Amino acid sequence: MVDQERSMLRASARIHDRLVEIGREILETPVPDAAWLECRRIARGMVKAHGHGWHLAVRRLRPQLVYALNTCRRRLDEAQSQFDNAAPNPNLPSLHDVFNDLTALERELADVRADLKRAKLSVVTDDIVLEGIDLGRFEILLDWSLLGRSLAYEVVALDPNPAASSSETTHPHVQANQLCEGDGRAPIRQALAEGRLFDFFLLVRQVIQTYNSASAYVSLTEWHGVDCRDCGRSLGEDERDHCNECGEEVCYDCSILCRDCDRSFCSDCAPRCPGCEETFCASCRSRCAGCGELFCEECLADDRCSSCRKTHEEETENADGQIPEGPSDQTSPYPSVQPVRLGEAGVPA
Amino acid sequence: MRVLAINHDGGGFADYLEIPEGTTVKELFERQVQSPNPENYLIRVNRQPVPADQVLQEGDRISFTPTKIEGA
Questions:
Q1: How far is A255 from A243, CA to CA, in rounded Å?
Q2: Using the 8-state DSSP alphabet, how is residue A297 labeled?
Q3: Which of A197, A240, A288, A337 makes an SS bond possible with A305, Cβ 3.0 to 4.6 Å?
């Protein structure tokens, strides 16, 4: 028997032992003995106090008994839940089944290794390439000593190409070596619970090979980061601000705050007011009725900027100061040389 | 005859099924998975890929695993 086969056989035996142990643990569901004994102690005390006529003592013990009974009821509910959720595996695999799983893994997936000291079984995938982005190989690492408990496995990037915004996100659905299983959760949990390790590794591999753009830690379109709309710098997730007008991403250095509403904008969406040179968004600016330029509210009065107001006032004054023309005399044969004033007579030319 | 069928499309339960003698892998797939696209599944008999017309035997272990399983 070659070394690898011998190693797999030993690993199979250890894994099978663990699966049997899980079955025994389930049957040893703890019942709340201590909580029940406490209830009995207090109840006995109440009976004794009542017998002696110590009514004050009975009154003091009553709330203690209520508390102890509630605690006991909670512990019973927890024990029942644990018992219900951890039913013994009716399909407990034999040692032969476990060994067949491991040898089949070597045919299906590359590089299967068993570390007997650390109780770990690992499988390495091929390069995972999703939408043209090479995420490298991943090691699916199962700690069989943790079977029957949560977090028995990890997914470790061997050639990390993490998201620009998060070094812990090595795959759209893997963060801090934990796979977010999504649709794979139920079958993966079932496979682990039943000790079907071939199925488990196959399922995890299929999840890693599938990209779900609707629910990723970091989407692949943003995998290499998002560029600032204004300066073009590549931005991490915590380096971005968001233009409230056009929706583009900007860095905090390029982000502009509207002086009135205090929201953030890119440079195009919050230009300077020509009057005061402060930055305002479109909602906080209005058009001058004179020149048509956009100004902040403070720089407009009567819907005009200061320059247009001045021009408008001058025009209005000029219009007020002009001498109105006299009524036209259509019967006179002589054109007027000078306008006729009160007290004067027209002088023919 | 009795076989173990594992459908990973959903809950991933393993069930012992009674099936007629001479049932092929393809026929079992159509009965269990009810999908018109077997190419979207990894189909393994006793943990190995097999042709669609392979006739199943007593005690065979058949698994159907979707090729695309979306994480979250």
A1: 8
A2: G
A3: A288
